[in-house]
Amino acid sequence: MYKVIGATKSRALRVLWMLEELGQPYEHINAGARSPEALAYNPLGKIPALVDGDAVLTDSVAIMTYLADKHGRLTAPAGSVARAHQDALTFWLIDEFDAILWAAAKHSFALPEERRVPAVKDALKFEFERSAAILSDRLDGPFLMGDEITVPDILACHCLNWAIGARFPRTDDKLFHYGKALRDRPAFQAASAA
């Protein structure tokens, strides 16, 4: 059985959701960043961490990719052109969604108060809106890569949820409904309740 270390209201939700979609059992240790529990699995204290046997894996996207490859679901096959397109979208989401939201979070609460530059958040919201429009244009079906949910959908939806919580401007109707449909999935509901 897998063990997931990390608070539900963090990037650990991505891993929990992935495991629910895969139908894999797991133990969840609800721990915050830099907590004693997190430090026991990652010397940097970052969350999430995934324990699989003797292996401890870190970084939510690396963990999701590992799980998708290991179980042969929610991903295109490694070495395929479809996988290269999927990976390109995943990396784009990390750069253009996740990084923007994390920068806003740093200037809201993560950095020491004297290091925060609150004015930067307006520029980050502009960048996020521009990226959301690009993602919306790319969305041509129920999921980003076609007719089935994949790793980029979990990442994109988590970021869209994060943007809502951070009071970023609402995305267009297409992305709003896409995110709502993903949040309505039983696996998302189960992971959120973990």
Structure write-up:
- Residues 79-194 form the GST C-terminal domain.
- This is Glutathione S-transferase.
- The protein has 194 residues and is an alpha+beta fold.
- The protein folds into two domains: 2-74, Glutaredoxin (3-Layer(aba) Sandwich); 81-185, Glutathione S-transferase Yfyf (Class Pi), Chain A, domain 2 (Up-down Bundle).
- The chain is built from eight helices and four strands; from the N terminus they run E-H-E-H-E-E-H-H-H-H-H-H.
- The protein has helices spanning 12-22, 36-41, 60-71, 81-110, 120-138, 151-165, 173-183, 186-193; strands spanning 2-5, 26-29, 49-52, 55-58.
- It has a four-stranded mixed beta sheet with strand order 2-1-3-4.
- The longest helix has 30 residues, at 81-110.
Q: What are the salient characteristics of this protein?
A:
2 domains, single chain, globular, 8 helices, four-stranded mixed sheet, Glutaredoxin, 194 residues, 4 strands, alpha+beta, Glutathione S-transferase Yfyf (Class Pi), Chain A, domain 2
Question: How do the strands and helices of this protein lay out in sequence?
Answer:
Elements: E1 2-5, H1 12-22, E2 26-29, H2 36-41, E3 49-52, E4 55-58, H3 60-71, H4 81-110, H5 120-138, H6 151-165, H7 173-183, H8 186-193
Parallel strand pairs: 1-2
Antiparallel strand pairs: 1-3, 3-4
Helix pairs in contact: 1-3, 1-6, 1-8, 4-5, 4-6, 6-7
